[in-house]
Specification:
about 325 residues; alpha/beta; 3-stranded mixed beta sheet; 13 helices; about 45% helix
Length: about 325
């Protein structure tokens, strides 16, 4: 569920978004219903909100939503196909994924004696992209993944596919307070794979029931103050890791893994941990922003866009970061 209306209105009253965007988001929140019951007016209000937040025409915002819906359907079909693929089918699927920065990445990570965090976003057919990327890096032959959904047979099958490619994968659950186990995995020499664009709406209900609070940090996204999960940056800083942003574009027939600049999460001399976490957090937000602007049709989470600006509601732990306001 998205943040409750009361908390969201209080956030808007503090001047987080321009008045015209507030009105569009207000209409969308009033009309928002589960996917099976979406009505035309609610869709138009959501399109208005996306158009205002991105600065794009409404026609483009509608296309973003349509592409996102189609991408999510394709993602689920690809997940099923990869889970049941035999060796030949898997090899053909991986062959459709281009990794143009392979040599550059190899040189950047050669003799890396630092923990590695792969910071991914929900874009394109990214499962196939990860099957292409992870076996290509010696540093990711042992990898720990943080996932929100509960375990399921197709996830187990995908981990088995990774093992067949020489990658030993373990999975931690977002609902099970994974930060300390993930930090230990990094310190044990395992790479960590985590998503950096998890919206506040995705915080698991079982975690809320136990009183576990979601840590969000203010940053800038699409030119507005927004809230993104603090965990990836906090983990990277605590481990003194190198962070590699990962994006996938295209389709299951032909896709491309795009890599952002490495982010050094080691603390500078005299740099406080909170300041280092904010620095890495903002760097990842800037990369997410750049990919959203450059390849909006690949992002799978356009329906959740307003939630990033509404923050996390009463169950969230919200930090303004080490900066008085989020940098541009």
């Amino acid at each position: 569920m998205l943040a409750d209306t009361t908390a969201w209105r209080a956030r808007l009253a503090a001047g987080v978004l321009p008045t015209v965007a507030q009105r569009a988001l207000s209409r969308w929140y009033r009309r928002h219903v589960p996917a099976a019951g979406r009505d035309a007016a609610g869709e138009r209000a959501l399109g208005d909100a996306i158009a205002l937040l991105t600065g794009e025409p409404l026609s483009r915002a509608v296309l973003f939503l349509q592409a996102s819906d189609a991408g999510n359907r394709a993602f689920q079909a690809d997940f099923d196909a990869l889970a049941r693929a035999d060796g030949q089918i898997l090899a053909r699927r991986i062959a459709t994924v281009d990794l143009p920065q392979a040599r550059e990445l190899e040189l950047a990570l050669v003799d890396l004696d630092r923990p590695l965090v792969l910071a991914c976003i929900h874009a394109g057919p990214y499962l196939g992209a990860l099957l292409r990327l992870l076996p290509a890096l010696p540093a990711t032959r042992r990898v720990t993944l943080i996932r929100r959904p509960a375990s399921c047979p197709r996830e187990a099958a995908l981990c088995a596919q990774l093992r067949s490619l020489g990658v030993a994968a373990e999975v931690l659950r977002l609902a099970e307070r994974p930060l300390l186990p993930a930090l230990q995995a990094l310190r044990d020499g395992r790479a960590l794979l985590t998503m950096i664009d998890v919206p506040p709406a995705f915080w698991p209900a079982e975690a809320q029931a136990r009183g576990a609070r979601q840590a969000l940090m203010a940053t800038s996204l699409l030119g507005h103050a927004a809230w993104l999960p603090e965990g990836p940056a906090a983990l990277a800083v605590a481990a003194g890791a190198v962070v590699l942003p990962v994006h996938c574009s295209g389709s299951t027939r032909a896709s491309c893994v795009r890599l952002g600049p490495l982010v050094d999460a080691a603390r500078d001399a005299g740099e406080a941990r909170a300041a280092a976490t904010a620095r890495v957090h903002h760097a990842l937000a800037r990369q997410l922003d750049a990919w959203l602007r450059d390849a909006p049709e690949d992002w799978l989470l356009w329906r959740y866009l307003p939630a990033y600006f509404a923050a996390g509601g009463p169950g969230a732990l919200e930090r303004r970061s080490a900066f008085p306001r989020a940098p541009p």
